[in-house]
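Anyone up for a design puzzle?
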């Protein structure tokens, strides 16, 4: 069951990445999924109570922007 949960989380993360790449943050091709997962876990551990109430996709997108914001305007 744990393997299934990890697979679902990975697919959710990839879906958010695919949907937001190039719109609010730049390419994820330079990142490995596992290193992104580690980064996001660290990011999540520092969220405020208000941020914890946001939709997961919004929190993930904000973390990706912080990690790899495009230098030019999108």
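Challenge accepted. My sequence:
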């Amino acid at each position: 069951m744990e393997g299934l949960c990890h697979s679902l989380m990975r697919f959710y993360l990839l879906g958010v990445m695919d949907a937001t790449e190039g719109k609010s943050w730049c390419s994820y091709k330079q990142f490995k999924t596992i290193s992104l997962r580690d980064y996001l876990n660290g990011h999540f551990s520092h969220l405020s109570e208000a941020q914890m109430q946001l939709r997961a996709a919004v929190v993930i997108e904000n973390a990706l922007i912080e990690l790899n914001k495009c230098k030019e305007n999108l």
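A detail worth pointing out: Helices lie at 2-20, 33-44, 49-52, 56-68.
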